[in-house]
Amino acid sequence: MNNEQGVSMMKEIEQKLQGKISRLTNKTFKFDKRIKEGWFSAVYFLKTKEIVEKKLPDNIVTMQFFQKEDAVLCGTDEAIALLHTFADHPEELEIMSLKDGDKIKPFETVLTVTGPYQNFGYLEGIIDGILSRRTSVATNVYNVVKAASTSGKQKPVIFMGDRDDHYTQQAGDGYAAFIGGSTAQATHAMNEWWGKEGMGTMPHALIQMFRGDIVAASKAYHEMFPEDELMALVDYNNDVITDSLKVAKEFGETLKAVRLDTSNTLVDKYFLRNHHLMGTFDPRGVNPELIFALRKALDEEGFPYVKIVASGGFTEERIAYFESRNVPVDMYGIGRSLLKINIGFTGDNVLLNGTHSAKEGRKYRPNPRLEEVIYEKNKE
User: Fold this and answer.
1) What distance in Å separates the CA atoms of residue 128 and residue 231, rounded to the nearest whole number?
2) pTM higher than 0.85
3) Element (H or E) spanning 360, and its range?
4) pLDDT tens for residues 176-188?
5) E strands of 109-204, at which residues?
6) What domains sit in the chain, N to C, each tagged with a CATH number?
7) How far, rounded to the nearest angstrom, does the alpha carbon of residue 137 sit from its chain's CA centroid?
8) In the 8-state DSSP scheme, what is residue 190?
Protein backbone atom coordinates (compact mmCIF):
# COMPACT_ATOMS: atom_id res chain seq x y z
CA MET A 1 0.00 0.00 0.00
CA ASN A 2 1.46 3.36 -1.00
CA ASN A 3 1.16 6.48 1.13
CA GLU A 4 -1.64 7.96 -0.97
CA GLN A 5 -3.74 4.80 -0.60
CA GLY A 6 -3.10 4.82 3.15
CA VAL A 7 -4.37 8.38 3.45
CA SER A 8 -7.48 7.58 1.40
CA MET A 9 -8.35 4.68 3.76
CA MET A 10 -7.79 6.82 6.86
CA LYS A 11 -10.86 8.27 8.52
CA GLU A 12 -11.26 11.95 7.77
CA ILE A 13 -11.12 12.80 11.47
CA GLU A 14 -7.59 11.34 11.58
CA GLN A 15 -6.59 13.40 8.55
CA LYS A 16 -8.05 16.48 10.22
CA LEU A 17 -6.24 15.87 13.51
CA GLN A 18 -2.99 15.42 11.56
CA GLY A 19 -3.55 18.66 9.65
CA LYS A 20 -3.97 16.94 6.28
CA ILE A 21 -7.46 18.44 5.83
CA SER A 22 -9.07 21.40 7.55
CA ARG A 23 -12.64 20.10 7.86
CA LEU A 24 -14.67 16.93 7.55
CA THR A 25 -16.60 16.49 4.29
CA ASN A 26 -19.44 14.47 2.84
CA LYS A 27 -17.11 11.46 2.81
CA THR A 28 -17.82 11.39 6.53
CA PHE A 29 -21.40 12.66 6.63
CA LYS A 30 -22.87 10.73 3.67
CA PHE A 31 -25.81 13.08 3.11
CA ASP A 32 -29.14 11.93 1.70
CA LYS A 33 -29.07 12.93 -1.97
CA ARG A 34 -32.71 14.05 -1.78
CA ILE A 35 -31.50 17.21 -0.01
CA LYS A 36 -30.68 18.59 -3.45
CA GLU A 37 -34.33 18.10 -4.49
CA GLY A 38 -35.52 20.13 -1.50
CA TRP A 39 -37.06 17.08 0.18
CA PHE A 40 -35.94 18.18 3.65
CA SER A 41 -36.40 21.95 3.20
CA ALA A 42 -39.44 23.91 4.33
CA VAL A 43 -41.66 24.55 1.32
CA TYR A 44 -41.58 28.32 1.80
CA PHE A 45 -37.80 28.24 1.24
CA LEU A 46 -38.33 26.32 -1.99
CA LYS A 47 -40.95 28.80 -3.20
CA THR A 48 -38.68 31.72 -2.27
CA LYS A 49 -35.89 30.13 -4.31
CA GLU A 50 -38.16 30.03 -7.35
CA ILE A 51 -39.29 33.64 -6.90
CA VAL A 52 -35.74 34.94 -6.48
CA GLU A 53 -34.47 32.99 -9.48
CA LYS A 54 -37.11 34.65 -11.65
CA LYS A 55 -37.42 38.12 -10.12
CA LEU A 56 -34.15 38.98 -8.31
CA PRO A 57 -31.39 36.71 -9.61
CA ASP A 58 -28.55 39.23 -9.22
CA ASN A 59 -28.89 40.01 -5.50
CA ILE A 60 -26.17 38.93 -3.09
CA VAL A 61 -27.19 38.18 0.51
CA THR A 62 -25.29 37.40 3.68
CA MET A 63 -26.95 34.82 5.92
CA GLN A 64 -25.83 34.77 9.55
CA PHE A 65 -26.27 32.00 12.16
CA PHE A 66 -26.36 32.38 15.96
CA GLN A 67 -27.90 31.00 19.16
CA LYS A 68 -28.62 32.34 22.65
CA GLU A 69 -26.64 30.27 25.20
CA ASP A 70 -23.13 29.68 26.47
CA ALA A 71 -22.35 26.54 24.52
CA VAL A 72 -19.85 24.22 22.87
CA LEU A 73 -20.26 24.62 19.13
CA CYS A 74 -20.65 21.55 16.96
CA GLY A 75 -21.98 20.95 13.46
CA THR A 76 -19.98 23.54 11.52
CA ASP A 77 -18.06 20.96 9.48
CA GLU A 78 -21.34 19.23 8.67
CA ALA A 79 -23.10 22.48 7.71
CA ILE A 80 -20.21 23.55 5.49
CA ALA A 81 -20.07 20.11 3.86
CA LEU A 82 -23.81 20.43 3.23
CA LEU A 83 -23.27 23.75 1.45
CA HIS A 84 -20.33 22.43 -0.55
CA THR A 85 -22.34 19.37 -1.60
CA PHE A 86 -25.75 20.83 -2.44
CA ALA A 87 -25.48 24.57 -3.07
CA ASP A 88 -25.38 25.68 -6.69
CA HIS A 89 -21.89 26.92 -7.57
CA PRO A 90 -20.53 26.35 -4.06
CA GLU A 91 -17.12 27.58 -5.17
CA GLU A 92 -18.63 31.08 -5.49
CA LEU A 93 -19.94 31.24 -1.92
CA GLU A 94 -18.04 33.18 0.70
CA ILE A 95 -18.25 31.16 3.93
CA MET A 96 -16.87 32.31 7.28
CA SER A 97 -17.11 29.99 10.27
CA LEU A 98 -16.01 29.05 13.74
CA LYS A 99 -14.91 25.45 14.37
CA ASP A 100 -16.40 22.43 16.06
CA GLY A 101 -15.41 22.51 19.73
CA ASP A 102 -15.24 26.31 19.99
CA LYS A 103 -16.83 27.81 23.12
CA ILE A 104 -19.47 30.32 22.06
CA LYS A 105 -21.47 33.09 23.71
CA PRO A 106 -25.12 34.11 23.35
CA PHE A 107 -25.81 35.89 20.05
CA GLU A 108 -22.26 35.28 18.80
CA THR A 109 -22.13 34.78 15.04
CA VAL A 110 -20.83 31.28 14.34
CA LEU A 111 -21.31 31.08 10.55
CA THR A 112 -21.96 33.44 7.66
CA VAL A 113 -22.69 32.53 4.06
CA THR A 114 -22.57 35.14 1.30
CA GLY A 115 -23.77 34.59 -2.25
CA PRO A 116 -26.88 34.56 -4.48
CA TYR A 117 -29.82 33.48 -2.29
CA GLN A 118 -31.17 31.08 -4.88
CA ASN A 119 -27.94 29.10 -4.76
CA PHE A 120 -28.07 28.14 -1.09
CA GLY A 121 -31.01 29.72 0.77
CA TYR A 122 -33.18 26.61 0.77
CA LEU A 123 -30.59 24.93 3.02
CA GLU A 124 -31.16 27.40 5.88
CA GLY A 125 -33.48 25.23 7.96
CA ILE A 126 -31.29 22.15 7.54
CA ILE A 127 -28.25 24.10 8.74
CA ASP A 128 -30.23 25.39 11.74
CA GLY A 129 -31.16 21.81 12.61
CA ILE A 130 -27.63 20.47 12.22
CA LEU A 131 -26.14 23.17 14.43
CA SER A 132 -28.94 22.91 17.00
CA ARG A 133 -28.71 19.15 17.53
CA ARG A 134 -24.95 18.83 17.37
CA THR A 135 -24.33 21.83 19.64
CA SER A 136 -26.99 20.70 22.13
CA VAL A 137 -25.45 17.23 22.48
CA ALA A 138 -21.87 18.53 22.57
CA THR A 139 -22.79 21.08 25.23
CA ASN A 140 -24.74 18.57 27.31
CA VAL A 141 -21.80 16.17 27.25
CA TYR A 142 -19.30 18.92 28.02
CA ASN A 143 -21.31 20.00 31.06
CA VAL A 144 -21.62 16.42 32.32
CA VAL A 145 -17.90 15.74 31.82
CA LYS A 146 -17.15 18.97 33.68
CA ALA A 147 -19.48 17.94 36.53
CA ALA A 148 -17.71 14.56 36.68
CA SER A 149 -14.45 16.33 37.53
CA THR A 150 -15.62 18.60 40.35
CA SER A 151 -14.26 16.30 43.07
CA GLY A 152 -10.77 16.99 41.74
CA LYS A 153 -10.42 13.87 39.60
CA GLN A 154 -11.83 13.50 36.10
CA LYS A 155 -14.23 10.56 36.00
CA PRO A 156 -14.86 9.06 32.54
CA VAL A 157 -18.35 9.39 31.08
CA ILE A 158 -19.79 6.61 28.90
CA PHE A 159 -22.18 7.94 26.24
CA MET A 160 -25.11 5.49 26.31
CA GLY A 161 -27.68 7.26 24.16
CA ASP A 162 -28.56 4.37 21.85
CA ARG A 163 -31.99 3.64 23.39
CA ASP A 164 -33.13 7.22 23.88
CA ASP A 165 -33.48 8.37 20.28
CA HIS A 166 -33.85 7.03 16.74
CA TYR A 167 -30.97 4.81 15.67
CA THR A 168 -30.26 6.94 12.60
CA GLN A 169 -28.99 9.71 14.90
CA GLN A 170 -26.20 7.65 16.46
CA ALA A 171 -23.29 8.63 14.21
CA GLY A 172 -23.94 12.35 14.52
CA ASP A 173 -24.69 12.18 18.24
CA GLY A 174 -21.54 10.14 18.82
CA TYR A 175 -19.45 12.75 17.02
CA ALA A 176 -21.06 15.55 19.02
CA ALA A 177 -20.40 13.61 22.24
CA PHE A 178 -16.76 13.24 21.16
CA ILE A 179 -16.54 17.00 20.63
CA GLY A 180 -18.08 17.45 24.09
CA GLY A 181 -15.49 15.20 25.71
CA SER A 182 -16.82 11.62 25.78
CA THR A 183 -14.67 9.03 24.03
CA ALA A 184 -16.35 5.95 25.54
CA GLN A 185 -19.53 5.23 23.58
CA ALA A 186 -22.00 2.39 23.48
CA THR A 187 -22.31 1.47 19.77
CA HIS A 188 -20.09 1.12 16.73
CA ALA A 189 -22.34 3.60 14.91
CA MET A 190 -21.58 6.29 17.49
CA ASN A 191 -17.91 5.92 16.56
CA GLU A 192 -18.48 6.03 12.80
CA TRP A 193 -17.40 9.64 12.21
CA TRP A 194 -14.58 9.86 14.71
CA GLY A 195 -13.59 6.60 16.45
CA LYS A 196 -13.07 2.89 16.00
CA GLU A 197 -15.66 0.79 17.81
CA GLY A 198 -18.18 0.91 20.61
CA MET A 199 -17.60 -0.41 24.10
CA GLY A 200 -19.81 -2.30 26.51
CA THR A 201 -20.09 -5.39 28.64
CA MET A 202 -23.30 -7.10 29.66
CA PRO A 203 -26.98 -6.13 29.71
CA HIS A 204 -29.62 -7.44 32.09
CA ALA A 205 -30.74 -9.74 29.25
CA LEU A 206 -27.56 -11.80 29.54
CA ILE A 207 -28.03 -12.32 33.27
CA GLN A 208 -31.69 -13.21 32.73
CA MET A 209 -30.63 -15.99 30.36
CA PHE A 210 -28.59 -17.43 33.22
CA ARG A 211 -31.62 -17.11 35.54
CA GLY A 212 -30.08 -14.29 37.56
CA ASP A 213 -26.77 -16.04 38.20
CA ILE A 214 -24.31 -13.16 37.88
CA VAL A 215 -21.28 -15.43 38.27
CA ALA A 216 -22.39 -17.79 35.50
CA ALA A 217 -23.21 -14.87 33.21
CA SER A 218 -19.83 -13.26 33.90
CA LYS A 219 -18.01 -16.55 33.26
CA ALA A 220 -19.75 -16.92 29.90
CA TYR A 221 -18.91 -13.35 28.98
CA HIS A 222 -15.26 -13.73 29.95
CA GLU A 223 -14.92 -17.02 28.05
CA MET A 224 -16.36 -15.45 24.90
CA PHE A 225 -14.55 -12.10 25.16
CA PRO A 226 -11.36 -12.73 27.16
CA GLU A 227 -9.69 -9.66 25.67
CA ASP A 228 -12.31 -7.34 27.21
CA GLU A 229 -11.91 -5.87 30.65
CA LEU A 230 -14.54 -7.64 32.75
CA MET A 231 -17.24 -5.31 34.06
CA ALA A 232 -20.11 -7.10 35.80
CA LEU A 233 -23.63 -5.69 35.96
CA VAL A 234 -24.71 -6.33 39.55
CA ASP A 235 -28.21 -4.93 40.08
CA TYR A 236 -30.26 -7.67 38.35
CA ASN A 237 -31.26 -9.23 41.69
CA ASN A 238 -31.53 -5.82 43.40
CA ASP A 239 -28.75 -6.88 45.79
CA VAL A 240 -25.67 -5.12 44.47
CA ILE A 241 -23.32 -5.70 47.41
CA THR A 242 -24.03 -9.43 47.65
CA ASP A 243 -23.66 -9.96 43.90
CA SER A 244 -20.58 -7.71 43.63
CA LEU A 245 -18.81 -9.76 46.29
CA LYS A 246 -19.86 -13.03 44.61
CA VAL A 247 -18.35 -12.05 41.29
CA ALA A 248 -15.28 -10.45 42.90
CA LYS A 249 -14.51 -13.64 44.85
CA GLU A 250 -14.90 -15.70 41.68
CA PHE A 251 -12.71 -13.59 39.41
CA GLY A 252 -10.28 -11.77 41.70
CA GLU A 253 -8.15 -9.24 39.83
CA THR A 254 -9.71 -10.26 36.52
CA LEU A 255 -12.77 -8.30 37.58
CA LYS A 256 -12.12 -4.68 36.68
CA ALA A 257 -15.44 -3.08 37.65
CA VAL A 258 -19.02 -3.54 38.72
CA ARG A 259 -21.88 -1.49 37.32
CA LEU A 260 -25.00 -0.41 39.20
CA ASP A 261 -28.11 0.44 37.17
CA THR A 262 -30.78 0.09 39.85
CA SER A 263 -34.22 1.39 38.92
CA ASN A 264 -35.28 4.60 40.65
CA THR A 265 -38.43 2.78 41.78
CA LEU A 266 -36.54 0.12 43.76
CA VAL A 267 -34.80 0.02 47.15
CA ASP A 268 -31.78 -2.27 47.17
CA LYS A 269 -32.02 -5.31 49.47
CA TYR A 270 -29.02 -4.04 51.43
CA PHE A 271 -31.24 -1.37 52.97
CA LEU A 272 -34.06 -3.84 53.57
CA ARG A 273 -31.60 -5.85 55.64
CA ASN A 274 -30.39 -2.72 57.41
CA HIS A 275 -33.50 -0.72 58.31
CA HIS A 276 -31.55 1.26 60.92
CA LEU A 277 -29.67 3.05 58.13
CA MET A 278 -32.82 4.49 56.56
CA GLY A 279 -34.82 7.58 57.37
CA THR A 280 -32.49 10.44 56.44
CA PHE A 281 -32.10 9.92 52.68
CA ASP A 282 -33.92 8.63 49.61
CA PRO A 283 -32.93 4.93 49.39
CA ARG A 284 -34.28 4.36 45.89
CA GLY A 285 -32.15 3.64 42.83
CA VAL A 286 -28.42 4.26 42.61
CA ASN A 287 -27.85 6.55 45.60
CA PRO A 288 -24.73 7.79 47.40
CA GLU A 289 -25.27 5.69 50.54
CA LEU A 290 -25.52 2.50 48.48
CA ILE A 291 -22.28 3.25 46.68
CA PHE A 292 -20.48 4.19 49.91
CA ALA A 293 -21.61 0.84 51.37
CA LEU A 294 -20.54 -1.06 48.25
CA ARG A 295 -17.10 0.57 48.23
CA LYS A 296 -16.65 -0.26 51.93
CA ALA A 297 -17.66 -3.89 51.40
CA LEU A 298 -15.34 -4.37 48.42
CA ASP A 299 -12.41 -2.81 50.30
CA GLU A 300 -12.98 -4.83 53.45
CA GLU A 301 -13.17 -8.07 51.47
CA GLY A 302 -9.88 -7.36 49.71
CA PHE A 303 -11.08 -5.92 46.40
CA PRO A 304 -10.00 -2.26 46.50
CA TYR A 305 -9.02 -2.47 42.82
CA VAL A 306 -12.58 -3.15 41.61
CA LYS A 307 -14.00 0.07 40.21
CA ILE A 308 -17.60 1.20 40.49
CA VAL A 309 -19.63 2.36 37.47
CA ALA A 310 -22.95 4.11 38.04
CA SER A 311 -25.71 4.49 35.46
CA GLY A 312 -29.47 4.95 35.31
CA GLY A 313 -31.09 8.38 35.16
CA PHE A 314 -27.95 10.44 35.71
CA THR A 315 -27.89 14.13 34.79
CA GLU A 316 -25.39 16.94 35.10
CA GLU A 317 -26.99 18.03 38.38
CA ARG A 318 -27.07 14.53 39.84
CA ILE A 319 -23.42 13.92 38.99
CA ALA A 320 -22.44 17.28 40.49
CA TYR A 321 -24.24 16.26 43.70
CA PHE A 322 -22.47 12.89 43.82
CA GLU A 323 -19.12 14.56 43.23
CA SER A 324 -19.76 17.23 45.87
CA ARG A 325 -20.15 14.41 48.39
CA ASN A 326 -17.09 12.54 47.08
CA VAL A 327 -19.21 9.47 46.32
CA PRO A 328 -16.72 6.77 45.19
CA VAL A 329 -17.98 6.39 41.63
CA ASP A 330 -15.18 5.75 39.13
CA MET A 331 -17.20 6.12 35.92
CA TYR A 332 -20.66 7.34 34.93
CA GLY A 333 -22.90 5.95 32.19
CA ILE A 334 -25.39 8.48 30.79
CA GLY A 335 -27.87 8.54 27.93
CA ARG A 336 -31.19 10.36 27.86
CA SER A 337 -30.18 13.64 29.51
CA LEU A 338 -27.39 14.14 26.95
CA LEU A 339 -29.81 14.09 24.01
CA LYS A 340 -32.04 16.99 25.07
CA ILE A 341 -32.19 19.61 22.31
CA ASN A 342 -32.10 22.81 24.32
CA ILE A 343 -30.10 25.05 21.99
CA GLY A 344 -31.76 26.49 18.91
CA PHE A 345 -29.96 28.23 16.05
CA THR A 346 -31.37 30.92 13.81
CA GLY A 347 -30.28 31.82 10.31
CA ASP A 348 -31.07 35.37 9.15
CA ASN A 349 -30.39 37.33 6.01
CA VAL A 350 -28.68 40.45 7.39
CA LEU A 351 -26.93 42.04 4.39
CA LEU A 352 -28.30 42.68 0.92
CA ASN A 353 -25.72 43.59 -1.71
CA GLY A 354 -23.31 44.55 1.05
CA THR A 355 -25.61 46.87 3.00
CA HIS A 356 -27.65 46.29 6.14
CA SER A 357 -31.04 44.76 5.47
CA ALA A 358 -32.60 42.55 8.13
CA LYS A 359 -35.88 42.02 9.93
CA GLU A 360 -36.53 44.21 12.97
CA GLY A 361 -34.46 43.06 15.92
CA ARG A 362 -31.73 41.48 13.82
CA LYS A 363 -28.50 42.99 12.56
CA TYR A 364 -25.20 41.98 11.07
CA ARG A 365 -22.86 40.96 13.89
CA PRO A 366 -19.28 40.67 12.59
CA ASN A 367 -17.17 38.22 14.54
CA PRO A 368 -13.36 38.49 14.29
CA ARG A 369 -13.08 34.83 15.38
CA LEU A 370 -14.64 33.60 12.13
CA GLU A 371 -12.25 31.96 9.69
CA GLU A 372 -12.60 31.88 5.92
CA VAL A 373 -13.55 28.47 4.53
CA ILE A 374 -11.73 27.47 1.37
CA TYR A 375 -13.83 25.45 -1.05
CA GLU A 376 -12.45 22.06 -1.97
CA LYS A 377 -14.45 20.02 -4.44
CA ASN A 378 -15.82 16.80 -2.97
CA LYS A 379 -13.85 13.79 -4.14
CA GLU A 380 -16.13 10.79 -3.85
Assistant:
1) 40
2) yes
3) none
4) 999 999 999 999 9
5) 111-116, 157-159, 184-185
6) 3-137+343-373 (3.20.140.10), 146-339 (3.20.20.70)
7) 5
8) G
